[in-house]
Amino acid sequence: MSRSEQHVARIEHVSKKFCRNLHRSLRYGMVDLAREAIGLGPTAGLRRGEFWAVRDVSLSIRPGESLALMGANGAGKSTLLKMVQGLIRPDEGRIRVRGRMGALTQLGAGFNAILSGRENVYINAAILGVTKSEVDRRFDAMVDFAGLDHAIDDPVRTYSSGMRARLGYSIAAFLQPDLLLMDEVLATGDIAFRMKCFAHIESLIAQGTSVIVVTHMIGRIAQACNRFAVLDQGSIVYDGEVEEGMRIYRRLLRMQEAGNDEADDEGNPTARSTTAANPATPPSNAAPSNAAASSDAPMPSSVAMPSITATPAAPLPHYLGAAWIDEFRIIDVDGNDVTETSYASPLRLRVRLTSEERLDEFRLRIRFDGDGETLTVIESPRRTDDPLIGSRTVEVEVTKLNLLAGTYQVCAELIGGRPQQTLSERRTVLNVRSAARAGRFVLSHRWIDGQTVHVD
Amino acid sequence: MTAAATEIDELPWTAEYSPESQARRPLKMIVDIGRDVWAGRELAWRLFVRNLSGSYRQSLLGFLWILVPTIAQAASWTFLSDQRILQFGTIPGGSFLAFIAIGSVLWQGFFDAVQTPLKTVLANQGLITKLQFPRESLVLVSLAEVLFDFLIRMIFVLVICAFTGLSWSLGTLAVPVLMFGLILVGLALGLMLTPVGILYQDIGRTLTVLSPFWMLMTPVVYVAPDNPAYRIWNWINAPGALLSASRDLLAAGTTDMWVPALVWLAVALPLLLLGMMWFRLGFRIFIERMAN
What we know:
The complex is a heterodimer.
Chain A: E1 9-19, H1 22-37, E2 50-61, E3 66-70, H2 77-85, E4 92-97, E5 101-104, H3 117-127, H4 132-146, H5 161-173, E6 179-183, H6 191-207, E7 210-215, H7 220-224, E8 227-232, E9 235-240, H8 242-266, H9 287-296, E10 323-331, E11 340-341, E12 347-359, E13 362-370, E14 373-379, E15 388-398, E16 406-416, E17 421-432
Parallel strand pairs in A: 3-7, 3-8, 5-6, 6-7, 11-17
Antiparallel strand pairs in A: 1-2, 1-4, 8-9, 10-12, 12-15, 13-14, 13-16, 16-17
Helix pairs in contact in A: 3-5, 4-5
Chain B: H1 2-8, E1 15-17, H2 26-39, H3 41-55, H4 68-82, H5 96-123, H6 125-130, H7 136-164, H8 175-199, H9 202-217, H10 228-236, H11 238-251, H12 258-287
């Protein structure tokens, strides 16, 4: 059996229970402490006020596998991740891990505000189990990645939260773990750095680092994964392919929303958790065996929502970050795609943008390249009063192209963030039919001496 | 598939987490503690340096703050003695200042050791609930911090006492070992209190209230009275036994507390091991109930 087939993590029938009531929770803590001391371990079943945060979850991760573990808030994904990290112990089941584990869960935990960034790098690295000589070797690369060369000897309390997050990420990311655990950490920091992180994580995945990403948003990282699992109310309801998983997860969210609305109408918020409002939840007895079976060889689990209507899988957006260009088309006045045109035809450039979060300042730049040179650029005004959130379509009308025969690359760029930079770009090709003229473009012109030549 | 799966997982796992109580295999637990103490030594050193360089950076007096409690103690009791507000009997070694100063340094070392584990865990909550690292490094940091403060104070006090005059003997050589024992017993006690102290703040509050009370119950600022009841108490009161013996040997060169001091010294290490086992057991219980 080759080494590459060894699991890096094996999660077997793991459950974890919590208690929301503080006083009861503390009392149970004392009981657990006593039981632990006399060798009994956790109590079986639920005590009053307790609930299963994670229920009978089985998953195995092989080298090179990247798993996106999706779930709404409170689905139990962070709890599961904490158990894999070894922070909290399962109440049932067993977790085994192999190799060095890196966790991008809390960036800059343990930073001391009074000490300098440099001192904190060494401290934080030691917490993560990196020796001093290893840090020495990678120090410059880390600081460079974080973009903090000028500030590394300043006290951390003078750093912005974004700078702290950057430093924290760089330290954690330069660990070169066998298994990387991530928990929606990249929600802080500026968009430009986040995209750098995304690219870095993608390169780790591409290099074959095993990754478990826990998130509630289908974003760029989840897209880059090669396996997808959906967690709902503590149980795995799907484990398999990414596209199918995304469909199921979106469906689940929609159903939960619908369930919430229903519950609100009835004035009974607890209705949300009923199986009627949420058919995605399998009967609790049926789930374990299926989830376990699918853990060895990831394949769509049969548990997953038989009643889902086949919504056509959306084409993969061109992801470059938390904001991106979904679609870039060149169309005619009737809305048909145009790949070939004449120099005089009017055209429309249609760009569909999506942002997972509020993008306060953004603009669109469209560039026409031919023969490796930029011929012209048009840019939308930069607006600060109209943030981008969710999806929107922007159209530009080109009244007259004026380009002569040739093949042109047309590139749409979404520019935003602070500092402003390109967040996403998409290209398309436009052919302009031959017209009997020399040169690259037609100058808009008019003869004055009475022999006006119509250029149109 | 089952056979293949078994084969796949033949190489050892780095870590395994299961609900089984660690107390079922105490020997394995002791081995694990030893392994994690070793694994956590560099981290402990870094945390120690971090706390040290962080804690006095924003201070004019800096490290002098370590000495302030000792000076204040010695000054106030010397004042009470000079003004004859309190009467003290025959002082071993003859110097009242040396007697008080050594006593209060030893007591502070002991009580710091009792309080520090809980404080360290609470101060590093953010770290503990978010990142996995050898938990034993927290014990090492606690010990290092207590020892550091203690040694600084001790050196200061010994320099002072060099002027007031001490009479040493061969027995004085045992003093460092006895003092170390005193701190280890304190640390063991502190570790035992920590798991419950994390769950319920009552422990921390009790310690604050207990501190002056326990100090007055221990012959720190007075000479142990020579009656059977107090003698029995001083034998079973660990800091009393170890503190009296250390101070007598340091100041006068002889002590009548050899037996209880040596007994407590012998108990110190097993006690510390018990404390560390309890701390490790408790850790996985209280971590999930800690506020993040």
